[in-house]
């Protein structure tokens, strides 16, 4: 199935210029890339029009993108009921990101009556597919005993899964739950390691200045003139934040160093392109991109020379 990722943060849902699909469901790759490029350039009306056409031809990735744009009112009027309808279609097709988005709408009663039982089922499905924020939200429910019986052991497992994928809120809740479990058993909880340095996956995380520190971890180092572009952003800080979310959702991408490059566009101003690589050939870049897209990751190959302009 195709998949799409519009970056999700623990404080809520927001949309960045990160969109993607996988090829094992009929669709128009060229049109999808055109829509993604239009979204990156903030041409939301054009992007919405193309995504809507693709969605009406059963493109699952486009369905979710249409839903999120309806929810945000980008390129179209805000239409929560319509957003929920498109998310339901993508969820039924098995897209974890859509299942998570729909669960939030059902919990909040957006676009229709609240449906907590269905929301829990969707969160369980998405968490089972390794969606880190679905695991976080489901863990909160088990910790608090809301909608499900309180189960601190399950909450701990879910928080652990989310924390291992870089979700900071999950790390905080995990410490709290461990303390609760230790208190009930009369033992002392293990102290968490410092937040500085590598994260749970051994991947460098930005320090307090937002910079990505150097790491002694082994990184893929290929010679070649191809990279994968993950997205384009209006600020370097936004690009760094998006990389943190992206690598949390797609750990296989974390083996690469991110490369953020400024682009001065005549009619659009300054943009910051987030890229990973390099790859020895276009075929290598495309092959890795397909792996990311299979799990909902955004990317497209770009011919470039690292260290160049």
What is the averaged pLDDT score? 75
Q: Helix share of residues?
A: 40-55%
Largest beta sheet: what is the strand line-up?
4-5-3-6
Stretches with pLDDT under 50, minimum 5 residues: 1-26, 188-223, 305-309
Class from helix and strand fractions: alpha+beta
The termini sit apart by: 36 Å
Rg from Cα: 20 Å
- CATH top level label of the largest domain: Mainly Alpha
Number of discrete domains: 3
Q: Strand fraction band?
A: 5-15%
How would a textbook summarize the main sheet? 4 strands, antiparallel
So, the CATH homologous superfamily of the largest domain?
Answer: Tetratricopeptide repeat domain
What is the number of helical segments per DSSP (H or I, 4+ residues)? 11
**SSE string, helix = H, strand = E?**
EEHHHHHHHHHEHEEHE
Shape: globular
Number of strands: 6
CATH topology title of the largest domain: Serine Threonine Protein Phosphatase 5, Tetratricopeptide repeat
What is the CATH architecture descriptor of the largest domain?
Alpha Horseshoe
Describe this protein with a few key phrases.
11 helices; 3 domains; four-stranded antiparallel beta sheet; alpha+beta; 309 residues; Serine Threonine Protein Phosphatase 5, Tetratricopeptide repeat; Alpha-Beta Plaits; 6 strands; disordered C terminus; globular; 47% helix; disordered N terminus; 11% strand; two-stranded antiparallel ribbon
Q: Would you kindly provide a written description of the structure presented here, covering whatever features stand out?
A:
The chain is an alpha+beta fold and 309 residues long. It has 3 domains: 8-127, Tetratricopeptide repeat domain (Serine Threonine Protein Phosphatase 5, Tetratricopeptide repeat); 137-185, no CATH class; 226-303, Sporulation related repeat (Alpha-Beta Plaits, 2-Layer Sandwich), CATH 3.30.70.1070. It has helices at residues 29-40, 44-55, 60-72, 80-92, 96-108, 116-128, 132-144, 152-163, 168-185, 236-249, 282-294; strands spanning 8-9, 12-13, 226-233, 258-265, 269-279, 300-303. Strands 4-5-3-6 form a 4-stranded antiparallel β-sheet, with helices on one face. Helix 4 crosses helix 5. The longest helix is centred in the middle third of the chain and has 18 residues, at 168-185. The radius of gyration is 20 Å and the shape is globular. Residues 1-26, 188-223 and 305-309 have low confidence and may be disordered.
């Amino acid at each position: 199935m195709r998949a799409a990722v519009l970056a999700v943060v623990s404080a809520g849902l927001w949309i960045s210029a990160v969109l993607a699909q996988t090829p094992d469901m009929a669709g128009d790759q060229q049109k999808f890339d055109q829509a993604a490029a239009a979204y990156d350039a903030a041409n939301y009306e054009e992007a919405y029009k193309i995504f809507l056409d693709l969605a009406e031809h059963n493109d699952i990735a486009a369905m979710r993108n249409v839903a999120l744009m309806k929810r945000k009112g980008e390129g179209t009027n805000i239409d929560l009921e319509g957003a929920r309808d498109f998310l339901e279609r993508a969820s039924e097709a098995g897209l974890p990101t859509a299942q998570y988005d729909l669960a939030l709408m059902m919990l909040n009663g957006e676009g229709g009556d609240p449906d907590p039982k269905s929301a829990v089922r969707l969160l369980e499905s998405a968490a089972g597919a390794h969606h880190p924020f679905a695991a976080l939200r489901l863990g909160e429910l088990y910790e608090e005993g809301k909608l499900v019986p309180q189960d601190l052991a399950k909450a701990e497992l879910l928080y652990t899964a989310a924390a291992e994928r870089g979700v900071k809120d999950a790390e905080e809740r995990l410490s709290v739950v461990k303390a609760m479990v230790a208190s009930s058993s009369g033992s002392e909880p293990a102290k968490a390691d410092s937040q500085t340095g590598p994260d749970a996956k051994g991947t460098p995380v930005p320090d307090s200045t937002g910079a990505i520190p150097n790491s002694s971890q082994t990184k893929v180092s290929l010679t070649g003139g191809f990279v994968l572009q993950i997205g384009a952003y209006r600020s370097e800080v936004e690009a760094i934040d998006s990389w943190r979310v992206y690598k949390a959702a797609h750990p296989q991408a974390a083996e690469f160093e991110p490369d953020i490059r400024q682009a001065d566009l005549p009619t659009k101003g300054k943009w910051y392109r987030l890229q990973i690589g390099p790859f020895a050939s276009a075929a290598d870049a495309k092959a890795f991109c397909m792996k990311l897209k299979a799990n909902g990751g955004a990317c497209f190959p770009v011919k470039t020379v690292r260290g160049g302009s």
